[in-house]
Amino acid sequence: MAELESPNVMPKLISFLSSLLKRVAESNDLNQQQLIHQKVSVFHGLTRPTISIQSYLERIFKYANCSPSCFIVAYVYLDRFTQRQPSLPINSFNVHRLLITSVMVAAKFMDDLYYNNAYYAKVGGITTIEMNFLEVDFLFGLGFHLNVTPGTFQAYCAHLQSEMLLMQPLNFADSFLSLGKSLNKAHL
Amino acid sequence: MEMEKTGAGVAVLSAKEAFEKLEKVGEGTYGKVYRAREKATGKIVALKKTRLHEDQEGVPPTTLREVSILRMLSRDPHVVRLMDVKQGQNKEGKTVLYLVFEYMDTDLKKFIRSFRQTGQSIPPQTIKSLMYQLCKGIAFCHGHGILHRDLKPHNLLMDRKTMMLKIADLGLARAFTVPIKKYTHEILTLWYRAPEVLLGATHYSMAVDIWSVGCIFAELVTKQALFAGDSELQQLLHIFRLLGTPNEEVWPGVSKLKDWHEYPQWNPKSLSTAVPGLDELGLDLLSQMLEYEPSKRISAKKAMEHAYFNDLDKGHL
């Protein structure tokens, strides 16, 4: 996905990532079996945020001004996080906080010039104190596993690209948020 | 490497309970470094305390990168080992991160200074061994897609007894493998900074580390910094005086770099004038490390294969 820089690619990618995360969150909301074993974490809001995932991600994209690659990397982080923390699946109560945190951490790791936590907190509609807590928990939740190899980056890009071309509902068994195991074996 | 806490927020033994601080051994931008004893094992470690009280910023990007990168690279014998990361609280109840490293008793800066003070030369075989270890460590970093970007004697830790060298302080390091916004100009201590960075290149490569390695090589021989500028301009002029003012012929594209100006014209001098104690093979390797054109600069892996290292016993390195 070398065309990330071109102006019409990112809006499509943002839209696609949003719809994918929405489906993952809704699927996990419905999975009552899973809810029994779920832990409540700092990412878990008391209520579902009223802003849609798409509007939220568009807002982050508009104001974060980070490298387009950061959104792919943030997505890799979300995948790793859900693999390492199976008791914290992405759902409607935590997806927004996980999103703002993953993009912020990706920008901090990837870019030499980035906005600070206070700025991201404003963009995400949370307090700076909460943003700081989310960041630390996210980092420990990932085991500080932040580096993304070119192989992994390309694999995620290729997968997203093929799914975007198909633009049809994903089979969740094969969805990207559970593809990590095979990708990790191949590239990490 | 252990991790003290999961995303679910599991609390375990705090750093205060787990370690006994013995003495402060250094201080960085974000906190202090202590020599400490792990209470459970009695093992001596280096404890790097990172303040997070800069509420606006959160976890410093240097800490974030250092932990993440060392998580990958720590298995190499020539990269300092990060043993653990712990989360704690200071007296004001603010979050503090403790990075637990293996303890090394000196660094290359102190090592060179000790020879300078006694007026002795560092034995050629010692220089060779240290240089080989440095090239090996950098080759490992580069092989994993990591640029160090702040190589200098102070960031190279040593064990006096075994003469083992380890690369440390990866706070400015970064992965160079995924497309990103332009790199910052503000990296690396001036004396070890590559000319392409000084001239404002915003996309640079592994070659920036090799330039630093070359500067360190010369410093091991002479016990003085090779290019000791006190500003970016002075730094460039020091380089140009020895290696000659670059032009499109020796370095295609140099005049297109952001900070290129018309500079005084110097002809290149022989490296042996600046590094008189170095043998012919050493000078050849050094000249390949100090190539102006980054793409022509020798790689760390190739440097390890250079004839300069032929008579070195590499078995224990």
UniProtKB/TrEMBL annotation, chain A:
The lineage of its organism: Eukaryota, Viridiplantae, Streptophyta, Embryophyta, Tracheophyta. This is Cyclin. One of its GO terms (biological process) is cell division. It comes from the Eukaryota. GO terms for molecular function: protein kinase binding. InterPro entries: Cyclin-like_sf (IPR036915), Cyclin_P/U (IPR012389), Cyclin_PHO80-like (IPR013922). Belongs to the cyclin family. Cyclin U/P subfamily. The keyword Cell cycle applies. Keywords: Cell cycle, Cell division, Cyclin.
TrEMBL record, chain B:
Transmembrane segments: none annotated. GO terms for biological process: G1/S transition of mitotic cell cycle; regulation of G2/M transition of mitotic cell cycle; regulation of gene expression; signal transduction. It holds the Pfam family Pkinase. One of its GO terms (cellular component) is cyclin-dependent protein kinase holoenzyme complex. The keyword Transferase applies. The keyword Calcium does not apply. It catalyses: [DNA-directed RNA polymerase] + ATP = phospho-[DNA-directed RNA polymerase] + ADP + H(+); L-threonyl-[protein] + ATP = O-phospho-L-threonyl-[protein] + ADP + H(+); L-seryl-[protein] + ATP = O-phospho-L-seryl-[protein] + ADP + H(+). Residues 19-309 form the Protein kinase domain. ATP binds at K48. SMART domains: S_TKc (SM00220). Keywords: ATP-binding, Kinase, Nucleotide-binding, Phosphoprotein, Serine/threonine-protein kinase, Transferase. GO terms for molecular function: ATP binding; cyclin binding; cyclin-dependent protein serine/threonine kinase activity; RNA polymerase II CTD heptapeptide repeat kinase activity. InterPro entries: CDK, Kinase-like_dom_sf, Prot_kinase_dom, Protein_kinase_ATP_BS, Ser/Thr_kinase_AS. Belongs to the protein kinase superfamily. CMGC Ser/Thr protein kinase family. CDC2/CDKX subfamily. This is Protein kinase domain-containing protein.
